[in-house]
Amino acid sequence: MAPTDDRYPAIYQRGGDDLPRTAVAPPAAFPTAGAPPAEAPPAVEAVPVVDAVPAADAPGPDPDQPDADGPRPAPWRAGRARVLLILAAALVAAGVACLTIQYWLPASLVMDPAALHGIAVSPWGPTVAAAAPHFMGAGVGLGVAVLFFAARNRPAADRSFRATALAWALALVAAGLWAMFTPGLFPDATMEPQLHRLDGGGAGLAVYAMPWPYAVSSVATALLAPGLALAAVVVVLPPAGPARPSPHGAWLAGGALVLLGFAAIFAPHLTPLSMGTEPRTLGELTYSMAPWPTVLQGAAPACLIVGLGVIVWGTLGWAAPGPDPDL
Predict the structure, then answer these.
(1) Of the candidates 116, 121, 73, 125, which has an alpha carbon nearest to the alpha carbon of residue 98?
(2) 3-state secondary structure the chain
């Protein structure tokens, strides 16, 4: 019999290959020298059950905190909207006052060269009328903008308000075109200026006030530009959503307005047979009015300014981060 070594199991001895082998489960842990004893896991404390807060008493979400789906739009403050509407009405009233003050304030037509070193200048009444289109344009534009964007905070009323805004836009465009052609529609009133004679004791000079058709035609752009802008916003801005335009719609609407602007500029070239004038008589006065293609050229600035602005707005919306409104 072969000698054995007691230090090793029998299977590792000579001839141990023929012995049966059994699997022995390893110990749960093999402690190493110097290792601290394992600590028991901390006991889990019982959490008391709290009754659910009723829905009526639950605090609502903070409007200033961003939502999980993105920033929540700020609510429209009705008080501030009224202030803006009052400001818009005040701007329109200031424009009307600048335009009509020469008719109801005779002192605005006094021109005294002696007070200006003997130099004859235009009285301040007809001169201040040049500011009327700017005041009226700002007031009308602010008013339609406040009404349109305030309604976007009420999705239920968005469709009806968009239809109303489009009707207002068409009315403003029609009013602007009518004002533009007023001198040709009322030629006698245009050529018969209203004379305001003042008794200034020899110091003042009586001058002519601006004929009212010319005064009305001076505010044509102030009505036409806000009308075109409102119509473009209604077409370009998606309903009941953030104030981000549709890039494709903005490019199409803006491009159409730019084409209309160039068509107005070249109206005399496009309709040369309409450039003839017909002489008119008013008493001993013989005159002729400007042909309609020449008058229509006055619509070009509003079309070009609004059209290019809409194109830039749509391009900025296309380049801005976020989902594409056209997708």
Answers:
(1) 125
(2) CCCCCCCCCHHHCCCHHHCCCCCCCCCCCCCCCCCCCCCCCCCCCCCCCCCCCCCCCCCCCCCCCCECCECCCCCCCHHHHHHHHHHHHHHHHHHHHHHHHHHHCHHHHCECHHHHCCCCCCCHHHHHHHHHHHHHHHHHHHHHHHHHHHHCCCHHHHHHHHHHHHHHHHHHHHHHHHHHCHHHHCHHHHHCCCEECCCCCCCCECEECCCHHHHHHCCHHHHHHHHHHHHHHHHHCCCCCCCCCCHHHHHHHHHHHHHHHHHHHCHHHHCHHHHCCCCEEECCEEECCCCHHHHHHHHHHHHHHHHHHHHHHHHHHHHCCCCCCCC
Angle between helix 247-265 and 220-236 (nearest 10): 150
Please give the Cα distance from 191 to 32 (Å, whole number): 115
> Which pLDDT score is estimated for 204?
44
| pLDDT tens-digit series, residues 173-184 | 999 999 999 988
| Cβ-count burial 44-60 (b if 16+ within 10 Å, e if not) | eeeeeeeeeeeeeeeee
Q: CA 129 to CA 28: how far, in whole Å?
A: 100
Distance, CA of 215 to CA of 209 (rounded, Å):
10
Q: Are 292 and 276 in contact (CB under 8 A)?
A: no
| Position 297 confidence tier, pLDDT thresholds 50, 70, 90 | very high
Backbone angles phi, psi at 175, to 5 degrees: -65, -40
Amino acid, single-letter form, for residue 113: P
- Asked whether the whole model's pTM tops 0.70, one would answer no
Domain coordinates in residue numbering, the chain:
78-112+121-319
